[in-house]
């Protein structure tokens, strides 16, 4: 087979939808169109695998490709894992999914659909998203990339010079969301975290997860604010903050400045260990569909102002800090890229 005609497919399986993407052998995306299907988790693991296969079939048909051209498949799926390819208990999935060897089931289904065995690689969705964003920013260089994606939680990935994510020996590497925040610099108390640690996980100061505590603290200093008298549920109150900040509400602006500063300090902590060439900021705050250019520029400016003084001089001069650019395509493209890099190496 001509290696240049081969294609690598990526399946990005979330709790409710699966997305399919693909890359050619040179790493460029086959398509920038988002193809989504339901993951049907309520119907059991067999239905989920069927959905993944249908996603691949739909992608191949859409792009006039055949199973004969598929040289490898990657699967991005949220952990935690018991071991490579096997799910541990997850809060977002039915209890029956615990212990599911999704890699074995998907490999079997792929072999059946393709009429031959297909190389399959699996990994944490956030880290595979980092693989795709890393390819964009580093281009043909071998620079390493730290990706931080604040959303409901804090996604963290480190992509090494080989283009692959740092997983660690028990697949728990780069769980940097649960490292302690520098509380004395931020002037805050340790907020609780869903992981159970009490040292003030950085996730609580940089994402939606800790916003109820942050908002409560800020409202004590600003009892005149409209939200201090709001009867809305706390979740709706915190979700209103992004819109308020973009309209110039000083309390909301201050909260996102705080989050950007906390994340900037955390990036500097991680840079001491990882020394990346690039730092990429992802998540909803950097999504051009969700926030204004002014909001994103301010966030990145505050982030840089917090991070840069804590770096070594050479890092300060050379490290690049950029917003993510692939949006919802990143994890399926990253899964396809990991298949490409793994088959080649
Ligand atoms: Zn935690």
Fold blueprint:
Blueprint: E1 7-13, E2 17-24, E3 35-38, H1 45-62, E4 70-76, E5 81-83, E6 86-87, H2 102-114, E7 120-123, H3 125-138, E8 145-150, E9 154-159, H4 183-186, H5 203-206, H6 211-221, H7 234-239, H8 241-246, H9 250-274, E10 278-281, H10 293-307, H11 313-318, E11 320-323, H12 330-344
Uncertain regions spanning at least 5 consecutive residues: none
Structural class: alpha/beta
Major β-sheet annotation: 5 strands, mixed
String of helices and strands: EEEHEEEHEHEEHHHHHHEHHEH
CATH topology of the largest domain: Nucleotidyltransferase, domain 5
**Tally of DSSP helical segments:** 12
CATH superfamily of the largest domain: ATPase, nucleotide binding domain
- Which kinds of small molecule does this entry bind, naming each only once? zinc ion
Regarding quaternary structure, what we see is single chain
Task: Kindly estimate the percentage of residues that lie in beta strands according to DSSP.
Answer: 15-25%
Short description:
The protein has 345 residues and is of the alpha/beta class.
Describe the structure.
This protein is of the alpha/beta class and 345 residues long. It has two domains: 3-123, Nucleotidyltransferase, domain 5; 137-325, 2-Layer Sandwich (Nucleotidyltransferase, domain 5). The chain is built from twelve helices and eleven strands. The chain has a five-stranded mixed beta sheet with strand order 3-2-1-4-7, with helices on both faces. A four-stranded mixed beta sheet has the order 9-8-10-11, sandwiched between helices. A two-stranded antiparallel sheet has the order 5-6. It is globular.
């Amino acid at each position: 087979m001509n290696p240049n005609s081969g294609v690598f497919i990526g399946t990005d399986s979330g709790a409710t939808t699966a997305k399919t993407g693909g890359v050619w052998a040179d790493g460029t995306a086959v398509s920038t169109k988002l193809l989504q299907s339901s993951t049907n988790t309520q119907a059991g693991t067999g239905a989920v695998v069927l959905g993944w296969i249908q996603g691949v079939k739909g992608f191949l048909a859409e792009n006039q490709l055949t199973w004969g051209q598929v040289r490898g498949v990657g699967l991005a799926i949220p952990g935690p894992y018991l071991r490579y390819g096997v799910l541990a208990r997850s809060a977002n999935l039915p209890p029956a999914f615990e212990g599911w060897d999704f890699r074995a089931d998907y490999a079997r289904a792929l072999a059946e659909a393709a009429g031959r065995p297909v190389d399959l690689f699996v990994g944490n969705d956030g880290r595979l998203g980092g693989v795709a964003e890393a390819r964009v920013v580093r281009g043909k260089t071998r620079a390493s990339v730290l990706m931080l994606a604040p959303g409901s939680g804090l996604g963290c990935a480190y992509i090494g010079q080989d283009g692959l994510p740092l997983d660690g020996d028990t697949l728990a590497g780069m769980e940097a969301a649960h490292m302690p925040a520098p509380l004395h610099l931020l002037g805050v108390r340790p907020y609780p975290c869903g992981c159970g640690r009490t040292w003030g996980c950085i996730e609580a100061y940089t994402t939606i997860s800790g916003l109820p505590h942050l908002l409560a603290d800020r409202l004590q200093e600003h009892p005149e604010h409209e939200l201090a008298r709001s009867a809305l549920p706390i979740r709706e109150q915190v979700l209103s903050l992004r819109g308020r900040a973009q309209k110039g509400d000083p309390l909301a602006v201050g909260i996102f400045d705080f989050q950007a500063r906390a994340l900037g300090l955390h990036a500097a902590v991680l840079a001491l260990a990882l020394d990346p060439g690039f730092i990429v900021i992802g998540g909803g705050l950097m999504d051009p569909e969700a926030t204004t250019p002014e909001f994103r520029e301010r966030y990145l400016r505050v982030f840089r102002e917090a991070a840069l003084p804590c770096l070594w001089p050479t890092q300060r001069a050379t490290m690049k800090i950029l917003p993510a650019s692939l949006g919802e395509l990143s994890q399926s493209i990253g899964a396809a890229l990991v298949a490409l890099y793994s088959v080649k190496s």
